[in-house]
Amino acid sequence: MATSEQVEEVLGKEILGIQQEYPGFSIEVLEMRVRDVYPCLSVQLRIRVLGELWEVSFDYKGTEASLVSGDLDPDRVKYLGFLMRTHLFEWWDTKDTEKASKRMGKRLN
Fold it and tell me: Can you give the pTM of this predicted structure?
């Protein structure tokens, strides 16, 4: 099973940096920390959006967590990075209206 550090290293290549959903809007992922890998993949991101700094946490269970529970297959890691980017933009769009989304993020400035 991969360690938190190993997952952080390979997943960081997929998720760190500027992520763009559509022209004119992007989320910059500044830092990523993997707190746990198994049985729940817990990831904490520090991001910048429209000049605001945020800390966002994602907890993946089941299928998503199993993507990195064995060997770190490049295709699975790439898919998990895609899922995380999708969830990050969903979080941004719903953080002000949905309680579950609101609990996932904390504004730092």
Answer: 0.92
Report the chain's C-alpha Rg in angstroms: 13
Q: What is the pLDDT of residues 36-45, one digit of tens each?
A: 998 899 999 9
> 34 and 18 in contact (C-beta within 8 Å)?
no
Phi, psi of 43 (to 5 degrees): -125, 135
Per the structure block, which two tokens stand in for 64? 């998503």
Joined tokens for residue 60 = 């993946």
Query: Using CB atoms within 10 A of its CB, is residue 49 exposed (0-12), middle (13-18) or buried (19+)?
Result: middle
Nearest Cα neighbor of 50 from 95, 94, 98, 92 is: 92
Question: Which pLDDT tens digit goes with each residue over 56-96?
Answer: 999 999 888 888 878 899 999 999 999 999 999 999 999 99
